[in-house]
């Protein structure tokens, strides 16, 4: 495969697509598939043939279009988007192509949900067929990798990533260029590894899942560029077994890339070789932590180990290992294509680029959104998200999953970036964003996340194993209206213990939901303890609990 041959594949695919005057794209990502979108696609195919339009109209399955709340979604010519389409609508939909849209199915695209987003990671989602490499190549796929192999040295690639200001999208926000340069400088005994962390375990999060289902070749291309830059020759994608559609499409993408010589030995006629295998996780949340993930890939029990040494020096099988998550790798191809300085112009001063969020909970427009760093919470929740349904009031948004905090209304105008979230007691995390209204009890919310952390603790260190259990018991005691002020003091002491003595990030960050609710919703704790009442009505009251 040469640059000329890659361009020829792209041109051939584009010419093939031009043969059809009209196109119909049906979302076949998990959210819409669960609403029978595959049946919609099959029905549209049948109607195209039935109505004699097979020579002028082409249908295809594409990745996530974002507005999951209104799926199944179907798009046609001229930016027409249809929502909640069923197989029974296929006849009217196909008959309308080239004419007046089907008004009863129309979904407005001139609204903030679509207009306020900036697509970088998701630029191909809803556009390309995730199961056809030719469609990806026609959308400039693998052109960044080809440029890297034919025109750039590994050091030049790392320089572009450093210039971009990209920070790891897995949660901690560590500078990607710095991590790459550390791995590049490390000396292996035999081989260096590159790992994609696709173990997305936060409740309510589906960013990585959607990217893998919608644009798997994008992640492979990012991994190939990273491997070239740091000198890795073997790679693994560690993905949750609960993501069968993502796993299926990843396996298809790997086979297709290998067939074209874009993966494997002497890629594109160079000395660079890189292979990728998939490892399935069994659902342990702690395996999102990089040392626990490494242990799991090695076939051991997924438990973390003390650091240093860091994986960059001594990781998988004791070799230097680069670990980035799905979204981080997906950012790499456009950075290489457009330059690090282009990317650095997006976002805020210290948090560059865009961030993909899974917007869920009590908000009108649930789904996948990609926005510039530095946008405010108010803009995300009330403009892009469409506000709180049923006329209820906003109460909090929880970012960062079980490791994050609950952010009250007083911070709605806060910019969403790494530093601002840390200042209010939360974290960016991998991108989960759960909105809560005034029907939520914040004590109950804290108990929910603590129960999750307790269940997912690997048990290796005592502070996390015992501390999360004790905190969960104390929070349950509060929701049963059996606690006193001394229990709040005990919770605060346990939070301090976990943050300072736990082995890994799970235990260190487990207190965040508790501390943030104690900080911003202290009156709810007080009502449970002193008045024997739950202001939101979730926990009932002391008299009900006594009965």
List descriptors.
alpha/beta; single chain; four-stranded mixed beta sheet
Helix segment tally: 24
The helicity comes to: 40-55%
Coarse structural class: alpha/beta
Estimated radius of gyration: 24 Å
Largest sheet at a glance?
5 strands, mixed
Question: Major sheet: order of its strands?
Answer: 10-9-13-11-12
The outline comes out as globular
> Which parts are unreliable, with pLDDT below 50 for 5 consecutive residues or more?
none
Terminus-to-terminus distance = 74 Å
Instruction: State mean pLDDT (0 to 100 scale).
Output: 94
Indicate the proportion of strand residues: 5-15%
What's the total number of strands? 13
Describe this structure in words.
A hairpin with a 3-residue loop joins strand 3 and strand 4 (80-82). This protein has helices spanning 3-18, 30-33, 37-50, 90-96, 112-115, 133-138, 143-151, 154-164, 176-185, 207-214, 216-230, 244-259, 290-297, 326-338, 340-344, 377-384, 418-423, 442-456, 462-479, 485-501, 505-509, 512-520, 522-531, 542-546; strands at 22-27, 57-62, 74-76, 80-82, 193-198, 234-240, 275-281, 321-325, 354-361, 367-372, 394-399, 406-408, 432-437. The model has no long low-confidence stretch (mean pLDDT 94). The chain is globular, with a radius of gyration of 24 Å. The strands form three sheets. The chain has a five-stranded mixed β-sheet. The longest helix has 18 residues, at 462-479. Helix 3 (37-50) packs across helix 4 (90-96). It has 24 helices and 13 strands. It is α/β, with parallel strands linked by helices.
């Amino acid at each position: 495969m040469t640059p000329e041959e890659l361009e020829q594949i792209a041109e051939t695919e584009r010419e093939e697509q031009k043969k059809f005057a009209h196109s119909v794209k049906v979302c076949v990502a998990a959210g819409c598939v669960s609403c029978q979108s595959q049946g919609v696609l099959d029905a549209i195919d049948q109607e195209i043939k039935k109505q004699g339009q097979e020579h002028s109209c082409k249908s295809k399955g594409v990745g996530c279009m974002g507005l999951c709340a209104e799926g199944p979604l179907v798009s046609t010519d001229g930016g027409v988007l249809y929502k909640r389409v069923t197989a029974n609508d296929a006849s009217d939909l196909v008959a309308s192509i080239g004419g007046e849209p089907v008004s009863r199915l129309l979904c407005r695209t001139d609204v903030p949900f679509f207009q306020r987003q900036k697509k970088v990671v998701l630029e191909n989602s809803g556009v390309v067929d995730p199961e056809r490499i030719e469609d990806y190549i026609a959308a400039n796929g693998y052109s960044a990798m080809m440029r890297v192999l034919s025109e750039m040295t590994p050091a030049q690639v790392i320089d572009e990533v450093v210039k971009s200001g990209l920070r790891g999208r897995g949660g901690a926000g560590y500078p990607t260029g710095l991590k790459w340069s550390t791995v590049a400088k490390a000396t292996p005994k035999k081989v260096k590894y590159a790992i994609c962390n696709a173990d997305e375990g936060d409740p309510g999060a589906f960013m990585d899942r959607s990217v893998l289902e919608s644009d798997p070749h994008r992640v492979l291309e990012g991994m190939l560029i990273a491997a070239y830059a740091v000198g890795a020759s073997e790679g693994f994608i560690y993905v949750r077994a609960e993501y069968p559609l993502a796993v299926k499409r990843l396996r298809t993408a790997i086979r297709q890339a290998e067939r074209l010589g874009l993966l494997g030995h002497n890629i594109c006629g160079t000395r660079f070789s890189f292979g990728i295998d998939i490892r399935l996780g069994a659902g342990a949340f702690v395996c999102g932590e990089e040392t626990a993930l490494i242990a799991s890939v090695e076939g051991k029990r997924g438990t973390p180990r003390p650091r240093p040494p860091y994986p960059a020096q001594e990781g998988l099988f004791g070799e230097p290992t680069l670990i980035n998550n799905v979204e981080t790798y997906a950012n790499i191809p456009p950075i290489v294509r457009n330059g690090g300085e282009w990317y650095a112009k997006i976002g805020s001063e210290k948090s560059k680029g865009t961030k993909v969020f899974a917007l869920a909970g009590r908000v009108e427009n649930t789904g996948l959104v990609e926005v510039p760093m530095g946008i405010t919470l108010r803009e995300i929740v009330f403009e892009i998200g469409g506000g709180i349904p049923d006329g209820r009031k906003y109460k909090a948004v929880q970012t960062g999953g079980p490791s994050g905090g609950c952010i009250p209304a007083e911070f709605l105008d806060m910019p969403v970036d790494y530093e601002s979230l840390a200042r209010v007691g939360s974290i960016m995390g991998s991108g989960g964003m759960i909105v809560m209204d005034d029907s939520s009890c914040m004590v109950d919310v804290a108990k929910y996340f603590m129960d999750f952390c307790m269940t997912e603790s690997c048990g290796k260190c005592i502070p996390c194993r015992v501390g999360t259990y004790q905190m969960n018991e104390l929070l349950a005691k509060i929701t049963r209206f059996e606690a006193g002020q001394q229990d709040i003091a005990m919770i605060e002491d346990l939070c301090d213990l976990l943050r300072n003595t736990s082995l890994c990030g799970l235990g260190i960050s487990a207190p965040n939901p508790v501390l943030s609710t104690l900080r911003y919703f202290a009156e709810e704790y007080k009502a449970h303890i002193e008045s024997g009442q739950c202001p939101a009505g979730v926990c009932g009251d002391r008299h009900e609990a006594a009965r």
